[in-house]
Amino acid sequence: MNATNRAVNRGVLLVVGLILLAAGGTAFVAIIWRPAGQAWRDGVGQLREWLIAADEGARLHPSTTVSWVTLGLLLVLLALVVFAVVTVARLGGGKVHTVTRVEGDEGALGPVTVTQGFVADALNESLSRHEEILSTKVSASRVRGQDVLHVSVTPRQNVSPARTAATVAGLLDNLGTLLGEQPPTYISIHSGLRAKLAADQPRVR
């Protein structure tokens, strides 16, 4: 489950795609058209000479090869690494085994932790009684510091997704009533070859 903004994702993919497309097109033209290839080589040579001159003119000291250009590039790379680490950290902490933690008011038992396995078994058992559901997979992940339940179901072919979602949502409501709180949940409905093959086959009990 991705926690990043969809517009940002598409914007980054668009920019990267345009850059790769431009680079590939330029390389292709330089290969098949000799004047373009010569212009490319001349441009690369001039850029290399400019970079060498800029590096030599920005040396920290005549006795060293380290320049302000090198330090600037290192700072840019460091900023990119920090940005990547922060982005990955915001996406989530991976799969978890705890769905919710219920704090008791009084008593010797103290807080009660509901695990992902308990929820998966309960939902799988309930959904197995519905003929329109072929398979179910339940997992839990940590997203932005919060445990989120992911219920993935595969219905039979020609079964309305709205009907499938309503069935799962009803069971999740019952689960929330049982736990005393409704855990954040993401429902995904899938289809595939198995759904097509099982379209007209009754479930064997």
Write up what this structure looks like:
Helices cover 54% and strands 18% of the residues. The strands form two sheets. Strands 1-4-5-6 form a four-stranded mixed beta sheet, covered by helices on one side. A two-stranded antiparallel sheet has the order 2-3. It has 205 residues and is an alpha+beta fold.
Task: Give the gist of this structure.
The protein has 205 residues and is of the alpha+beta class. The protein is built from six helices and six strands; from the N terminus they run H-H-H-E-E-E-H-E-E-H-E-H.
Strand fraction band? Answer: 15-25%
Report the structural category.
Answer: alpha+beta
The succession of helices and strands, N to C, reads: HHHEEEHEEHEH
Low-confidence stretches: none
Spatial order of the strands in the main sheet? 1-4-5-6
- Please work out how many helical segments DSSP would assign: 6
Q: What can be said about the biggest beta sheet?
A: 4 strands, mixed
Instruction: Calculate the mean pLDDT score and round it.
Output: 77
Between the first and last Cα atoms, what is the distance in angstroms? 33 Å
* Helix content percent band: 40-55%
Per the principal axes of the C-alpha atoms, what is the gross shape?
elongated
Report the strand count.
6
